Amino acid sequence: MKTKNKNQVRKKKKKNKEIMLITWMFTLLFLGLSGYIVHYSATHKQELINNSYNGRQQILLAQNRRGKILSSDGSVLAQTIVDDEGKEKREYPYQNLFSHVVGYATNGRMGVESQANYYLINSNAPLSQKAALDVSGEKYPGDDVYTTLDVNIQEVASKALGVYQGAVVVTEPGTGKVLAMVSKPDFNPEEIADIWDDLIEDKESSILLNRASQGLYPPGSTFKIVTALEYIRENPDTYQGYNYTCNGSITRDDSRIQCYHGSVHGAVDFQRSFAKSCNTSFANIGLSLDRDAFGDTLDSLLFNQSLPVAFQSGVSKISVSEETSDADMMQVSIGQGTTSITPLLLNMITCAIANEGVLMKPYLIDYVENSAGNKTKTFSPDAYGKLMEQNEAEILKGLMEDVVEEGTASKLKGLSYTAAGKTGSAEYGTVKGESHAWFTGFAPVEAPQVCVTVIIEGAGAGGDYAVPIAKRIFDAYFENSAG
Amino acid sequence: MELYVSEFSKYVITLLIGLYTYECFAVFRYEKEEQRKGIYTRQNLLMFAFHFSCFLVLCFETGDITYLFFYAFQQIVLYAVIGLYRMLYQDANRLVVNNMCMLLSIGFCILTRLDMNKAIKQFVIASGSLVIALVIPFFVHKFKFLKNLKWVYVLVGIAALSVVMILGQTTYGSKLSYSIAGITFQPSEFVKILFVFYVASALYEASGFFEVFTTAVAAAAHVIVLVVSKDLGSALIFFIVYVLMVFVASKNYFYLMAGALGGSAAAYIAYRVFSHVQIRVQAWRDPWSVIDSAGYQITQSLFAISSGGWFGLGLGKGTPNAIPFVEADFIFSAVAEEFGIIFAVCLILICVSCFVMFMRISMELRDKFYQLTAFGLGVIYIFQVFLTIGGGTKFIPLTGVTLPFISYGGSSVLTTVIMFAVMEGLSMIRQDEERYLRQLARAKKKKKRKQIVRKAMMQEDEELRPGESELEIEAEMDEEQPVGDDFEDEE
Question: Is B316 on the interface with A (CB under 8 A)?
Answer without folding.
Answer: no
